[in-house]
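Appendix B, record 7
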Amino acid sequence: MGPSDEGIYHVVASNLHGRSTSRLARVLGRWVRHPRLLGDPQSLVRTQSYWAALTVTALGAEPKSYLWFKDGETLGSGWSPRPLLLLTNLSPLDGGLYHVVVSNEYGTATSAVARLTVMSPWELEPLVPFGSRWQYRTEPVKDERWREPGSMTNDWEEGSAPFGQGALPCRTPLASRSLLPVDVAYFRGMFKPGEEQWEAPLLVQLKAGPGAVVYLNGVEIRRINMPEGPLRWDTPALSPLEGTAPPATVAFEIPAGNLRAGPNSLAVELHAFRNSASPTAFWTLDEAEPPWRDLVGGHDFVPMGTGWVSAGGRIGACVSNAASASTWLETASTPALQIDGPFTVGGWFAYGWSTGDDPPGVALEKEGEFRLYYTGTRTNRYRFAVGAVEVQDETPGTLPGQWRFVVAWFDGTQACIQVDQGPVYCTTAELPSPTSNPLRALRRNRSEGGFAMDEVFLYRRVLSASERAELFTLGVRNRILSPSTNLWFDLRLSRLVRQRPFFPEVSVRTLVRKEGESAGFRLTACSAFAPIQYQWLRDGHLLPGATNEVLFLPFVGIEDAGRYHLVASNAAGATTSAPIHLVVVRAPVLSVVKDPDQGGWSLQLPPVPVPCTLWMSTNLLEWVPVTTWSASPEASFWPLPVSPDGPAAFYRLELSW
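Structure tokens (predicted):
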């Protein structure tokens, strides 16, 4: 045998009384290179705390890898060299639809879906299903009352989960008002548990990342991938959310005693991961009116005085102190802005000309810690001071209105400055003591001239030469925007209720019997709660006395045809099975009738509930098919080709099911 012999085989046996077709058989060979499935995983019913094994049989070149999915999502075990998925200590959460993808270097193959059903005293009844609608916000919220009951207002946006940002697929994309990725997102909704008292807890299934905090009625109940201690809106997650697959589901319980009578609030705070490449603060200064937002750390600049001007800048808009000694920008000190180690500051700066002796203009300063400034028009240089030590850049020829990219840093032992990717100038310096002084910008001591800034940043580390080059060539905004952060959120809240009976998948959906034959159905419901009562229905009507798993009809007639269901019930409730369609076939009678329209003769076929084929013979030995009909509740007609010179013709009808 070889590859040309592969295929699906069957055999037809016939004699004078008819013919019969065998079942199908597939022939494959071990020469197959692409993965091919010989056996799919089978549906299983298992008891809680027991184990389940799902297997698949596949041909194909080695090595082969297997990736299992549950309800369409990859399982955390990832690719495996074994065609077996072993699940132990089963719980209701393990129930679902499973399939597997088989892969080798030549391609992939996907199995059919198998259902795993877990019998348990409890089953999950969703109060808030996956894909629900939530109120959400992507701007920082500093008032903690947002997560409390009664906080629902119409000024938040509304969308359907899953929410996402970055490479992950989602229904509602998360976006901030700025061009920067979202660092924090808030979600809130209400649910009403019901009037009855619960003995069992609620179950939360959360798919969120990188970091998340869950609140019930304003009280934190779970923290995922977030540091301990108090949290701010800009507190980053501990690790990033990698890849293009949604985060794994985290399940946890809410004790019934934590619920309130009536509506309860459920809120989730989603935090992005911010690696060391991100700045501590970044101001685009594009706002036409104050405050000028820090898009990273929330350290917004506000004006001190009225001599500021918003105008066209190096990129977008900028802010200028046109000619005022009593105006500057300021933001309050925070622990993030206190210098306790290496740091970098910088941005784009330009001066205005009034005389040859215009005063200095401060780019950024934290009094007692550092100051980055322009010396004034007489010296026409940029300087950087750390503590009591200063270093001056010696780049000459800066013109009025010329934007210069100035970066200054302290590495622990030296203070350095660089302008427009030119030479680096350094001097020895010591780390100053942190202060609580505010961070200021655009401060001047006289009114002559002017000073402007744009795209200003602060890092709590020293930037490498390549990073400084990227900020200069690509643009500060583009460099910070480039590593888009993955975010994802969806949640299901369920209550645990006693498990109603359930039926494993019904294999026979239609049963065909000849009139007078017997017919029987057997369906068994599963449940951890006994006893189970049964009741059979036909076309929605109760069948008296049919109260067992088995329904037996000894001599079926046309009146027995219909759709049969089995209702199984226990103390938790009732479940109705999928329908089984009983088709009862009566031997049809062919008759010859006059065709009033054509003036000829036709064969009349009575209504038949199954497909059929009309055969014709001239000698009762050799038969040929003439036409076929599908199942129909109406009579069918076939015109007879009558010829006085032709041989006699005989007709018979073959029913197929």
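Remarks on this record: Helices lie at 465-474, 476-481. The radius of gyration is 39 Å.
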